[in-house]
Amino acid sequence: MTLQRLLPLALALTGLACDPAANRVNRPGPPPPHSNPQPGTDWELVWQDEFDGAEGTPPSPERWVHDVGGHGWGNEQLEFNTDRTENAAHDGAGNLVITARRERYSGRDYTSARIRTQGRYEPTYGRIEARIQLPVGRGIWPAFWMLGADIGTVDWPECGEIDIMEYRGQLPSILRGSLHGPGYSGGNNIGQDYVVSGARLNEDFHVYAVEWEPNRIRWFLDGTAFFEATPAQLPEGARWVFDHPHFIILNVAVGGTFVGPVGRDTVFPQEMKVDYVRVYARPT
User: Fold this and answer.
1) pTM higher than 0.85 for the full model?
2) What does the CA dihedral 201, 136, 218, 220 come to, rounded to 10 degrees?
């Protein structure tokens, strides 16, 4: 895409940009059959970050790289993403906290953080999961997702994008899982909204996961599957581009095409607390 070539980072256009009207809530039918794997049984733990660092320390540079900038990331986002501990730091209680703040910084009115495992860890297939407590408020857009590691050479959406979890802060009972690829990206992604009952997603920690295998990806919330994608669901002539390494991303955006403007009643700072990120593989 032309916009990406104009931005300094190859992954500036994330593919999370969506037309809200094209992503209206669809209450899912009965979920497909699913498993709730435990380490050492169906899956084997192969990579993890438990975020046990001392209070105020940044995420591990051996595992994570910061995206720094305020380019809108192709989605008209309003924040400037920094590498400061004010925006991403361990809390000393076993969590990484990504904090969106209302503050004037480098020409933007908000700051936040976006971290990725690109160049550190780029799995192909597996169960990728994180235990997260989400922020809340109109215009707040947290996400746990993956991009194809070849984005620097093939561009987006050819590289593939797997959105494990994203949600609109003004709709705290609805999460979305989706795929973006050539011919099915942006507002035309292949995905599903999932409406939870009872407590809202920002009120506690929940486990968000995908089980990613050749020609099949399944999405889970707290062990319950709510969506499955296969090549058969792609538009006619479209290609499945998820059989190669992807890297993991955690971020909290402010504003943008998916969530709309920030609400006047949205309280800052807003925090996304991540207890852990873990990757499992099938035992060999």
Assistant:
1) yes
2) -20
